[in-house]
Design goal:
74% of the residues lie in helices and 0% in strands. Helix 2 crosses helix 3. The N and C termini lie far apart (44 Å). 20% of the residues are buried. It contains seven helices and no strands. It is an all-alpha fold. The protein has two domains: 84 residues, lambda repressor-like DNA-binding domains (434 Repressor (Amino-terminal Domain)), CATH 1.10.260.40; 29 residues.
């Protein structure tokens, strides 16, 4: 993959996850300890980050580094879920598993019997 393309992917993903986290570029930059201008250039694919800065960015955004590097949303989403659940208690994880099973059952039921429009 060309360096420029990777920089664009990283920049787009940082912008997407920053927006999802409700952070401005300035807020993200402050939390990481870099300039707002640098974040702006990264998000536009004009600048590349050091590995340490990419790692810090992933921690602030509460996503995996894989999610920032990936164009495959399903892989990135699974990595993010793992990141969100790391360090949680067994009781917490059991509750999340139950919620996921309910969601799967609901989605599968809707796929089998789509509502009539």
């Amino acid at each position: 993959m060309a360096q420029r393309k990777l920089e664009e992917i990283i920049g787009n993903n940082i912008a997407k996850y920053r927006d999802a986290a409700g952070l401005t570029q300035a807020m993200l930059a402050e939390k990481i300890g870099i300039s707002t201008a640098f974040i702006s250039r990264v998000e536009r694919g004009q600048k590349k980050m050091k590995v340490e800065t990419l790692y810090a960015t992933s921690k602030v955004l509460n996503v995996s580094v894989d999610a920032l590097l990936s164009i495959d949303n399903s892989t990135a989403q699974m990595a993010n879920i793992k990141q969100l659940l790391t360090g949680k208690s067994n009781e917490y994880l059991e509750g999340i598993e139950k919620i996921i099973r309910v969601c799967i059952n609901e989605f599968e039921a809707k796929q089998k019997f789509p509502s009539e429009s």
